[in-house]
Design a protein that fits this description.
With 459 residues, this protein is an alpha+beta fold. Helix 10 runs antiparallel to helix 11 and helix 12 runs parallel beside helix 14.
């Protein structure tokens, strides 16, 4: 857990030393701030006759400030109001300085009660995760510990792990149902911000998305868009699901991820060494199926479609192809590809990229219309445009690019033998040592996938 806990301010205003002989209620408030994670506002309203109340708070074992408070009531009340889930411990000490302390831990749920934001007071359940911290909108839940006859020399500790405390909602579902998801979301957020998230963890991102705040979601998407390492680990399914949920409140950042993808993987597509050895065809073919009705994504892909040398981004071409299929304008897209291929200044390698785009365009089809529209993507390893691209390729980079496209199509059909044949044939045509090493990695990956009987590439 990051050290920013230690940066939390002690109490915003030093804890007040308050003495009162009246029955007036005295409220002690404190603010604990954590960078990038909002803040906690803690109100303590203790009124205890003849005793000093020592108040300490700890974050990850670090004491962040004590104070003493005296009052004239017998009710100790703690109000937690928070829009963040940061675990910490609160210790309330009731003691006379001249006597030896006797420690006593009161289990949460044994006798305290809490009041919901609607004013209904209930006995605290046995599990701490049912204790709410508030709604994040200024309404706080009240935790009340009744000490009608406080014993002298007694030390009472309340250990409240806030990451187990769920926010109050109007739902009948138990508040603790989402407690672990909240903690997991915070942990994944930290991993992403530190670029340490694994492919498996990123796969959980769509499920944890609802437990992140809007500012956290935007920051997360911005980091994803700028990190080649993290983008390479994000699976097709996670990318599609993330788009579905992100487009409603963070579409600009979500679209930026696509823009980064199309710029990042200019010629060779996505590395075979990603989470499940996905390549351009599988990832972008699947991604295009969920974005075809969103003009902003089409525009982003189109914007990054072509390069100064006349070649096209294969990744962008898949998205554009899917969008045209969904809009019923595939003919227009095919004409655009044919025009590009007729450019007399187009190099052989640049021509290969447009031939792959043409192959992709032939593999998309649309069914239905309006809200019932669905996009089918049926990869064909023997697509005539792909075979022509294979014959046209003049450099090792282009040969590997075409090989990837054909290999992934065979693996999607579970035809491992044919995929290996393509790899072997391509290896014989390569000249550069680095290219040979790259193809060797592809063949090794194919062997591992087949041996482990994993899902086909990209599925």
């Amino acid at each position: 857990m990051r050290k920013w806990y230690s940066l939390a301010l002690a109490f915003l205003s030093s804890l007040l030393l308050c003495l009162s002989s009246s029955a007036a209620e005295l409220t002690l408030s404190t603010v604990i701030r954590a960078p990038q994670s909002g803040e906690y506002v803690i109100f303590v309203t203790p009124v205890i006759p003849e005793f000093e109340l020592g108040v300490t708070a700890e974050i990850d074992g670090k004491n962040i400030g004590p104070s003493e408070l005296g009052s004239d009531d017998s009710t100790l009340k703690l109000v937690l109001s928070s829009d963040q889930a940061v675990p910490f411990k609160l210790t309330f000490q009731l003691a006379e300085s001249s006597n030896t302390e006797q420690n006593s831990r009161i289990p949460i749920g044994s006798s305290p009660r809490w009041s919901r934001p609607d004013g209904v007071e209930e006995q605290i359940p046995d599990t701490v995760c049912n204790l709410p911290t508030g709604t994040g909108s200024g309404v706080a839940a009240t935790f009340t510990y009744n000490k009608n006859e406080p014993a002298k020399n007694e030390r009472v500790e309340f250990e409240i792990p806030l990451h187990h405390i769920a926010f109050w909602s109007d739902s009948d579902d138990p508040a603790c149902r989402n407690a672990e998801a909240k903690l997991a979301a915070k942990q994944l957020l930290r991993q992403i911000l530190q670029q340490r998230a694994t492919a498996e963890a990123l796969g959980e991102l769509p499920n944890l998305w609802p437990y992140l705040y809007s500012t956290e979601r935007i920051g997360l998407l911005q980091r994803l868009a700028k990190s080649k390492r993290l983008l390479g680990r994000l699976s097709t399914t996670a990318a599609c699901d993330l788009y579905r949920i992100a487009r409603y409140d963070s579409v600009d950042q979500a679209s930026e991820i696509v823009a980064r993808w199309t710029r990042q993987w200019r010629r060779v597509g996505l590395s075979m060494e990603t989470s499940r050895a996905e390549s351009v065809s599988s990832r972008y073919g699947q991604l295009a199926k969920v974005i075809v009705l969103d003009d902003s994504w089409h525009a982003i892909a189109d914007q990054h479609l072509t390069f100064p040398d006349g070649s096209c981004s294969v990744a962008a071409a898949y998205i554009v192809a899917g969008c045209h299929a969904g809009n019923g304008t595939s003919k227009e897209w095919n004409e655009r590809i044919k025009t590009a291929l007729q450019n007399p200044d187009l190099s052989f390698d640049s021509k290969v990229t447009w031939l792959i785009a043409h192959a992709a365009a032939a593999e998309f089809s649309a069914n239905g219309e309006g809200s019932s529209l669905s996009i089918d993507y049926t990869p064909n390893p023997n697509n005539e445009s792909l075979l022509e691209a294979e014959r046209t390729a003049a450099s090792d980079d282009s040969r590997i690019l075409v090989a990837r496209e054909r290999i992934v199509r065979y693996t999607l059909a579970n035809n491992w033998h044919a995929a290996k044949d393509v790899a072997l044939e391509t290896e014989r045509s390569l000249r550069d040592a680095n290219s040979l090493a790259e193809l060797a990695r592809i063949r090794e990956q194919l062997d591992r996938l087949e041996e482990a009987q994993t899902l086909p590439i990209g599925q």
